Amino acid sequence: MLKQIESNKQLDFFNKTNPRFLLESQTFKPQSKPFLKWAGGKRQLINQYKNLQILPPNNFNYNSNYFEPFLGGGAIFFHLNHQNSFLSDLNEELVITYNAIKNNVLELISSLKCHKNNLEYFKEIRSLKISEMNNLEIASRFIYLNKTCFNGMYRVNKSGQFNTPFGNYENPMICDIENLLSVSKSLKYTSIKHSHFREIKKFIKTGDFIYFDPPYDPISKTSQFTSYTKFNFSEQDQIELRDFAYQLSKSGCYVMLSNSDTNFINSIYSGLPNFKIHKVFASRSINSVADKRGKINELVITNY
Fold first, then answer.
1. Letter string b/e over residues 98-113, b meaning 16 or more CB atoms within 10 A of that residue's CB
2. Sequence ranges of the domains in the chain
3. What contacts 170, CB < 8 A, 6 or more positions away?
4. What per-residue confidence (pLDDT) applies to 45?
5. Strand ranges of the sheet holding 191-194, from the earlier edge strand across to the other edge
6. Where does residue 22 fall: left (phi above 0), alpha (psi -120 to 50 degrees), or beta otherwise?
7. Cis before residue 56, ω within 30 degrees of 0?
8. Beta carbons within 10 angstroms of residue 208's beta carbon
9. How far apart are CA 303 and CA 256, in angstroms?
10. Which residues pair with 156 in a beta bridge?
11. What is the predicted pLDDT for the residue at 156?
12. Inter-residue contact 258 to 296 (CB < 8 Å)
C-alpha cells in the first residue's frame, strides 16, 4: 500500500516554494491546465473550436451552469474556468482523484513526491487493489500510473484493474506542484460526481451549457478503444446519448458534443433539428497500427 505522508509543517510558511504558501497566496493565480495525459484530450483542439466560434456559445450567460459529464482530462473545463460547473464521469478512480486535488491537494503532493520511476516499482503500484486503499492513496496511484505508463493511456481489463505497461520515460513529471495547486483552486466551487451522464438531468435548467466527450465510436477494428472503465460504450449508448442531447436542446440548453468522424456518428446526428456538424483535425496515437496514427478528422456537434 502507498505510504501516506503528511505535509511538512516545519517548513517556513512564508517560503514562496512552500506549497501551502502558494495555495493560500492571493497572488498565486496561474492558469490551470489538465493534470493528466488523456487519450482523446481536447487541449489541442481548443483553438479550432474558438475559430469556429463555438467555444463558448456566443450567448452563454456566465451566471448559468456548465456541465461536463464525460470529464476525462477536463481540457474544456480548464479552458472555460467556469465556477458554476458540474463535473462527472463513470471512472471512479478519476473522480476520486479530482476530489483529492480539490480537497486534499497538499497531502496528495506529499504522497506524489515519494514515487519512483522504475519498472519494478511501477508493477508494484499497478498491482494494488483500490478496494484496499483510501481515497488519497487511490489518487496518488492514479496520477503516478498516468505519468509513467505507456503513452499515458488509461486502460483497464474486465475486472477493472489497470493494465497499461510501463512507459520507460526518463524523467516524467509525476508531481507538477504549481499546476496541482492551480487545479485545486479552479475546482473550489465545482461539484465532481461519480455518475452516469443522464444523472445531470436533475440539475439542468434553460441556458446551461453541456459538453459531451464520450468514448468515441471506433473508426476501425484496430482503433477500438473504449476501456476507460470496465464497461464498454456501445452503438446503443451513442444513440442514447444523441437522444439525451436532443432533449436538452429542446429544453433550451447549449449542447456541444465531440466524436469520431464515422459513418455511424454522421448518420445519427445528420438531420437532427437545430444541430450542426463541424469537422476538426486532431493528432491521435491510440491506434495499434503505427501508420494509422497521426492527424485524423473528428466531429464536433452543436445546437447553436
1. bbbbbebbbbbbbbbe
2. 26-302
3. none
4. 96
5. 191-194, 85-89, 66-68, 209-212, 254-260, 294-302, 276-284
6. alpha
7. yes
8. 22
9. 7
10. 162
11. 86
12. no
Instruction: Using only the alpha carbons of the chain, give its radius of gyration.
Output: 20
* Per-residue b or e along 160-195, where b marks 16 or more CB atoms closer than 10 Å to that residue's CB: bebebebbeeeebebbbbebbbbbbbbbeebebbbe
For residues 69 and 244, what is the distance between their CA atoms, to the nearest angstrom?
Answer: 12
Contacts of 168 (CB under 8 A, 6+ apart): 119, 150
Name the one residue in this structure whose C-alpha cell is 429542446.
250
Which triple of cell numbers denotes residue 119? 519498472
- Please report how many Cα atoms fall inside a 13 Å half-sphere around the Cα of residue 28, on the Cβ side: 20
Tell me if 46 sits within 8 A of 211, measured CB to CB. Answer: no
C-alpha to C-alpha distance for 92 and 96, rounded to whole angstroms: 6
166: helix, coil or strand?
Answer: strand
Query: Do residues 226 and 215 touch, judged by C-beta distance below 8 A?
Result: yes
* Ranges of the chain with pLDDT below 50: 4-14, 225-226, 287-291
The answer to whether the Cα torsion of 30, 190, 61, 78 is positive or negative is positive
Class in CATH terms, 26-302: alpha beta
Condensed to tens digits (0 to 9), the pLDDT of residues 180-228 reads 999 999 999 999 999 999 999 999 999 999 999 999 999 876 555 445 5
Question: Residue 225 and residue 293: Cα distance in Å, rounded?
Answer: 14
